[in-house]
Specification:
The chain is mainly beta. It is built from 1 helix and 50 strands. The strands form 16 sheets. The protein has a 5-stranded mixed β-sheet with strand order 25-32-31-28-29, with no helix packed on it. A hairpin with a 5-residue loop joins β31 and β32. It starts with 14 loop residues before the first strand and ends in an 8-residue tail after the last strand.
Amino acid sequence: FTDSSEEYGYNPPFSAVWDFGDGSAPQTLGTPVRQVTTHSYTPSNPAGLNPFTVNLTVTDGFCVQSLSKTIVLGNVPVDFTVTPLICSGAQFPVQATSPNPELITGYYWHWEYNKDQPYVFDSSNKATLQSIIRSAPGIPHTLTLVVRLASGCLDSISHPVQVSYPDATFTPPAGACVNSAVPFTGTGTPDPATGSPVTYYSWDFGDGTAHAQGPNVTHQYADTGIYTVTLLIDDANGCARTYVSPTSIHITSPLARFGWSDTSFYCPKTPLTFTDSSIGYNLTDQWNYGDGSQDNTGIHAYAGNGSYIASLTVTDAFGCTNTQPKTILIQNPIASFDIADTTAICTPLQTMFTAHGQYYDSLYWDFGDGTTSTLPVTSHFYNTLDTFYAKLFVRGPGGCFDSATRRVLVLDPNKTTQLKFSPPSACDSVPAQFDTTPPGYTKFTLVFGDGSSDSSQNTSPFHMYRSPSTYTPTLVLTDVSGCIVNFGTSSNIKVLGSVPFIGL
């Protein structure tokens, strides 16, 4: 007790007398004033409230004044009740009861695991608590109420709490295929303290589709992705547990894609490398080449020409497959070309070349005179008299070749032309039989020398010379380019005789 009396016109000696109201002898204190004294009470009702009237009398020897106050000492009974069973993780209400609630100024509720945290009092004796999550089966839990009295004293009361904690678990497959039936098996374990059986299973597959019920279910995922699966269970007491799988399920749909060189055909007996451009997760390949052979290399040589359906089947890490077929033409290249102006008796000869090959990706001309070209359509000038063999080489994808050859003649008319006739001479008239051999592919006109000629291309014409004279037959040769060459011989045809002439 603290004496806070005031003195006016101090006239010692000053004294203060305390009467503590419990029948004990008064206690007298002298100067100075405002001393602190203590007193121990023995309550007559240890379990309840004990009021006492305390009186303080002060005097300075002349004036006396007294002041009385009533104090209440004792315990404030407080208690609370909880339901016999609460569900792990669920909220439940509690409310404190006391015969003297007016003496309680604050309430604080806590579990055993946070009993050492600072108290945060609430003026309401009601609370909605989040049940503790049982960390292991069979662990008991204690709920404690701490009250703060008007005097500042703290009191507490604890009750054991039975928490029902059914357990749930499942192990999803690491992965599965789009639109395949994926099995899920859930395990619900009752809380050992209650033994309440698990009666409800609900699955959330993580793809936004409707939930499925039951411990054993299947689900089809309509799209690829990585999904988190959740299982909710309830036991017979209505206590729930949600289990989120720590591992996700990977739903895949591999896509087989492949190709080869830029063309749709390829050489036989040449290793062809297929290019795999498939999309998927940890893919393995299986190639079927369409000719009865298959492997996982993607490299194959076809034995002969033909059309084959090659296919690639890819399988990912979860057994999901996809196949793509493609038709491939295996074909040797075919060399062919057109040629114009292949024969001449004059230089230069301009010859036209036009390639008409098939199943090739590159070509090469060898004109037979040491010159070459790679143009599909080209012309070439031959500048010497000779026989040339022009060749076209075509190369197919893979390196196989084919060739075609045509002859080009730039003829020397003096070596290839013959002009024969008989008899060389006779009287009056000469019947002459000609035998001509012109250069190949060359037009000719046989000029008899007597003003007549024959351009019928008859190589054995007959001609009658009727007037006495000497005649020199010649062949006039004309090639396709318009070049003209006159070919004659050293022999002559003579018609012997005289021509009458009368002079007047």
